[in-house]
Design brief:
Helix 1 runs antiparallel to helix 2 (33-67). The chain has one domain (10-67): Helix Hairpins, CATH 1.10.287. It contains 2 helices and no strands. It has helices at 12-27, 33-67. 6% of the residues are buried. By secondary structure, it is mainly α.
Length: 78
């Protein structure tokens, strides 16, 4: 995902809120075609961000369950 301020998602909750707002806008059928395309692209970025954040948390829970201690999970792909 792009690192500029417009396309970044500062945290999971903010990303989900923005994604929900985009879905509502797109479902209203009030957006012109070009704005709909941009909203779809942004929504895809946000969805990928949220899916990765959830996967990271899931991995932390697995680590906790295995060792009975929560350990920070670091994704080597970052």
């Amino acid at each position: 995902m792009s690192k500029n301020k417009q396309n970044s998602a500062p945290d999971f909750e903010t990303a989900v809120a923005e994604l929900e707002a985009l879905v509502q806008q797109m479902e209203s059928d009030q957006l012109p075609l070009e704005q709909s395309l941009q909203a779809f692209k942004r929504g895809t970025e946000l969805l990928q961000f949220c899916q990765k954040a959830l996967a990271d948390v899931e991995q932390q829970v697995r680590i906790l369950n295995e060792s009975n201690q929560l350990q920070p999970y670091t994704d080597i792909d970052d």
